[in-house]
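Meet today's protein:

…
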Amino acid sequence: MAKISAEVKQNLAEKDLTLVVWSFTDEVEGMIEDNNFGYKRSHPNMAVEYSLTPTDMFSAKLDSAFSSGRECPDVFALESFFVRKYIEEGSKFLLPLDDVYAEIKDKMAEYPMQVGTYKGHVYGMAWQICPGAVFYRRSIAKQILGTDDPVEVQKYMSDFTKFRQLTELIDKRSNGSVKTVSSTADLFLAYKASRKNPWVANEKLVIDPAMEDYMEMCKIMHDKGYEGKVGQWSEGWFAGMKDCLRDERGENIKVFCYFLPTWGLHYVLKTNTWETSGDWAMCQGPAKYYWGGTWI
């Protein structure tokens, strides 16, 4: 929420105001317009000017407005990839939401609030959480491990050491016809969440050992052919879900699992797995992580 001047605070006591809201997702508009619980229902005298901008253009639009100090939004959404940029500049542009958070903190998950907090003040709040998991093919689990039970499958990938051993086992028992993942990029957020150090400390870049481990894992899986060698979000990445990914020689290969968040089930797997529908299960995987989210 953009910082409110004394003049604006005085005007807030008046009726028939206009609230300027910017977002990169239509979810925010839905919460404003909803007939049952929307903002407009509880604030009938407040007009809302809503602006929707594509995600890849949104940050630049915010930067332009804040640098000029003109036509800034009253409320705006922040995506996980750039939320901290604005939260850490909170004292310049944002109104602390400490009082709002104090009223509902017992109902809030911890990690979104950590993301939205800087130097003891809450500048952004999230209405959603996006925990990550591992979604795997039941048929392949039975073939390779003898079980498709999530509890048992989790034992084979309860940490990254065991996950590496699993990649070797899958390759050996399938004679190379099954790859553990389509892309090693799938592992990035799980390793990132395993860091003990921030990216920057005392104004210096810090490479946590977890990220070095990630690079080592990527090299091993690439060199030994344990991954599909396709880019995340590419046609090949989706093809692995459909059971029709081809390797570098043009031969059909299968993919055992995908690292995805909760929204990945509904918007990625369900929309790309007609051929393999019903053959997927979920377990926690080698590390707790999250992927995505929206802060206000």
User: Anything to note?
Assistant: Residues 8 and 155 are 57 Å apart (CA to CA). Confidence is low (pLDDT under 50) at residues 4-8. The chain has two domains: 6-122, 132-289. The first helix runs from residue 6 to 11.
